[in-house]
């Protein structure tokens, strides 16, 4: 691991923005350019390059010399990439940001203001909307299914049709663009390196919740996101990791009754996924755009197999987490019910209604 740029030792940095990049040079001008047009001062930008071979690191070094650049020898994934960046960060607030985004000029100032006003909130989410159509919602925090699958709340809804307060409580934020307080991370640990990518933010968010921290949404902190530009919207790679990681996350963090029911709830979701494919609806239609659904089915089964193989290690992590939790299973169950996502909503078969 090679690091370019010295950390701030004078105490002037309150916020560290961490960006993980893998072959995303074509995204970086918009992302980094918007970051250096913010209305606030006192922040640093750390870009972790996951062994890109498209010249990303050289481009950043030449075009954005104020960025602290962490060069990894290989692609270590979103989870570990963020962790390497957090380890180098100086700020009391850690902000994760996807490379395929651009941010509003007052994004960071608004995010920090909300974090300052809500001391018990260990996590602050953003209004994440479409890169090309800012009225289309990508995520206003995450909602979650009974088997642990999650997606952005209000996904594909129109922002202009919603009536939300400046600050809303959420279950947890999407790490596409989220603020995490270092005080929480010191207590919970960082992202789980074993996850590589996908569901690592759900896992971290629920660990934060179990540790007694709240999560809020700063609705006026606006991020524009291209969505799934690194791994593809529905690639076999993504399907395998999502299938594996949601299982691991449930084993680590969910109340025991959800863990016991996991084989049943996962089977019900698979049935709904198969129906969506047969009906060519939602994500089922997206799977058929690959030419055949079989690569996605095989990736799902491979992910489930990897999940089972890794279960003993995740159960050891569960024991560690549960011994230190400050929130009861009943309280967490109530949160999961409040922010419940149906399988039909997950698969884009219905438009979600209601608020967080």
TrEMBL record:
Regions that span the bilayer: none
Similarity comment: family membership: Belongs to the glycosyltransferase 2 family.
Domain Glycosyltransferase 2-like: 16-187
Name of the featured protein: Glycosyl transferase family 2
UniProt KW keywords: Glycosyltransferase, Transferase
PANTHER family xref list: GALACTOFURANOSYLTRANSFERASE GLFT2, RHAMNOSYLTRANSFERASE WBBL
Any one GO MF annotation of this record: glycosyltransferase activity
């Amino acid at each position: 691991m090679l690091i370019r740029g010295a950390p701030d030792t004078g105490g002037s940095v309150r916020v560290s923005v961490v960006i993980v990049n893998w072959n995303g040079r074509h995204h970086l001008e918009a992302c980094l350019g918007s970051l250096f047009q913010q209305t606030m001062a006192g922040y640093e930008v750390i870009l972790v390059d996951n062994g890109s071979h498209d010249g990303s690191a050289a481009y950043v070094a030449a075009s954005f010399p104020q960025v602290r650049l962490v060069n990894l020898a290989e692609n270590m994934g979103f989870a570990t990439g963020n962790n390497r960046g957090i380890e180098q960060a100086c700020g009391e607030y850690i902000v994760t940001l996807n490379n395929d985004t651009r941010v509003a000029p007052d994004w960071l100032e608004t995010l920090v203001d909300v974090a300052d006003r809500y001391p018990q909130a260990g996590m602050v989410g953003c209004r994440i909307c479409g890169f090309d159509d800012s009225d289309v919602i990508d995520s206003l925090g995450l909602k979650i299914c009974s088997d642990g699958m999650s997606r952005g709340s209000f996904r594909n809804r129109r922002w202009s049709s919603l009536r939300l307060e400046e600050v809303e409580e959420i279950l947890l934020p999407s790490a596409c663009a989220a603020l995490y307080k270092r005080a929480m991370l010191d207590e919970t640990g960082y992202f789980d390196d074993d996850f590589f990518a996908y569901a690592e933010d759900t896992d971290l968010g629920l660990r934060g919740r179990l540790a007694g921290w709240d999560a809020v949404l700063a609705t006026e902190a606006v991020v524009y996101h291209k969505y799934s530009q690194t791994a593809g919207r529905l690639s076999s790679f993504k399907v395998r990791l999502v299938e594996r990681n949601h299982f691991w996350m449930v084993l680590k963090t969910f109340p025991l009754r959800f863990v016991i029911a996991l084989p049943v709830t996962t089977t019900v979701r698979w049935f709904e996924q198969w129906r969506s494919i047969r009906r060519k609806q939602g994500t089922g239609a997206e799977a058929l755009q690959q030419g055949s659904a079989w690569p996605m089915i095989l990736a799902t089964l491979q992910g489930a197999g990897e999940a089972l193989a890794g279960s003993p290690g995740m159960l050891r992590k569960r024991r560690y987490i549960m011994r230190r939790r400050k929130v009861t299973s009943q309280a967490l169950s109530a949160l999961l019910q409040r922010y419940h996502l149906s399988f039909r909503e997950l698969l884009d078969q219905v438009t979600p209604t209601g608020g967080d």
